[in-house]
Amino acid sequence: MILRSEVRRAQERTMELFARAGIVLTAEERERIEVAGFGLGQLEAQGLELITYSNTDRYCAKELVLFPGQTCPEHLHPPVGEEPGKMETFRCRWGTVYLYVEGDAAPDIRAVIPAGSESHYTVFHEIVLQPGEQYTIPPGTKHWFQGGPEGAVVSEFSSTSRDEFDIFTDPGI
Amino acid sequence: MILRSEVRRAQERTMELFARAGIVLTAEERERIEVAGFGLGQLEAQGLELITYSNTDRYCAKELVLFPGQTCPEHLHPPVGEEPGKMETFRCRWGTVYLYVEGDAAPDIRAVIPAGSESHYTVFHEIVLQPGEQYTIPPGTKHWFQGGPEGAVVSEFSSTSRDEFDIFTDPGI
Ligand SMILES: [Zn+2]
Ligand SMILES: [Zn+2]
């Protein structure tokens, strides 16, 4: 459970990071910034803030915010019906993102795995994104990501989002 | 024909507008900013600058720049094979865009139709986009757009781009 006051505060911090990144939202969008705690009740450690610009049956675009050290937990996007899993391009707009996908593990990763959840993080191929840098995650690939020391603002371009089908490594999500 | 020097200058102006909008490109991206004159040889009046971030078989994302008063000529995106035409969401990031689509014509439009090309502009339903505002153009709908007094930076989120199939109203394109 995340308190309503905590959601409000997270929305305000999100707007501060958007302002630093030069990103403008309408008043209507500001009201519907999503604060995702993934049911873990530890938003600072494991959470994500986002605004969905457009999610049609053909494509999706979102703006994501990670606070410093905040982690979006490991998950993958499975096929849905006839369609392959969601494909995502993450483009860093501001700050730093540490992104982890399947593949050769980095010997010493830069992110700090959320304490107590170590067993729910299993892929460690490291990609560090600075402003202007991007990475495309193929469908069905496990991934997780964390904001750097100042946090991060990340544009997500993707195929249609169907979040209810996402498979998280942590069975508590 | 656009001179090589004119392309370079347009790329530089594009980078200036990106900087004002807080948009960062990599060195590699800066080198491949596209300057589209549509074969009309009057880039200032009819043209578009853009960088394609990602164009996969599932979605596409670009950043567009219009100089002050510069117009992207009227066109539509037809079906390609089994697929409906390209669907596009334009999100204004900086400046002002005057966008025209099929529908009730505005009595007095804000854009200035490029001189000598009046007959190639036929749709006048006006949408004015300021930073944070966006509009989605359905497949197969004629549209054109022009940069306001300071120009514009516009994010385009869309289904796959197959520009070679675009149908322009001007037979000279
Ligand atoms: Zn994902
Ligand atoms: Zn178009």
Overview in brief:
Chains A, B: Belongs to the D-lyxose ketol-isomerase family. Helices cover 13% and strands 38% of the residues of chain A.
Structure description:
Two copies of one chain form a homodimer. The first copy, chain A, is mainly beta and 173 residues long. Chain A has one domain (4-168): Jelly Rolls (Sandwich). In chain A, 13% of the residues lie in helices and 38% in strands. The first copy, chain A, contains two helices and nine strands. The first copy, chain A, has helices at residues 4-21, 27-31; strands at residues 34-36, 48-55, 60-66, 71-76, 88-101, 125-129, 134-137, 143-158, 167-168. In chain A, strands 1, 2, 3, 4, 5, 6, 7, 8 and 9 form a nine-stranded antiparallel sheet that branches. Chain A is globular. The mean pLDDT of chain A is 97. The interface between A and B is medium-sized, with 28 and 28 residues. The site of one zinc ion has 4 residues of chain B, from loops. Chains A, B: Its EC number is 5.3.1.15.
Return the CATH class of chain A.
Mainly Beta
Instruction: Give the oligomeric state.
Output: homodimer
CATH homology group of chain A = Jelly Rolls
Residue-averaged pLDDT of chain A, rounded?
A: 97
Q: How many structural domains in the coordinates of chain A?
A: 1
* CATH architecture designation of chain A: Sandwich
The interface involving the most residues is between: A-B, 28 and 28 residues
List low-pLDDT spans of chain A: none
Written as H for each helix and E for each strand, in order along the chain, the element string of chain A is HHEEEEEEEEE
Helix content of chain A: 10-25%
Summarize the main sheet of chain A: 9 strands, antiparallel
Compute the number of helices of chain A: 2
The number of E-state strands of chain A comes to 9
CATH-defined topology of chain A: Jelly Rolls
Which structural category fits the helices and strands of chain A?
mainly beta
Radius of gyration of chain A: 15 Å
Distance between the termini of chain A: 12 Å
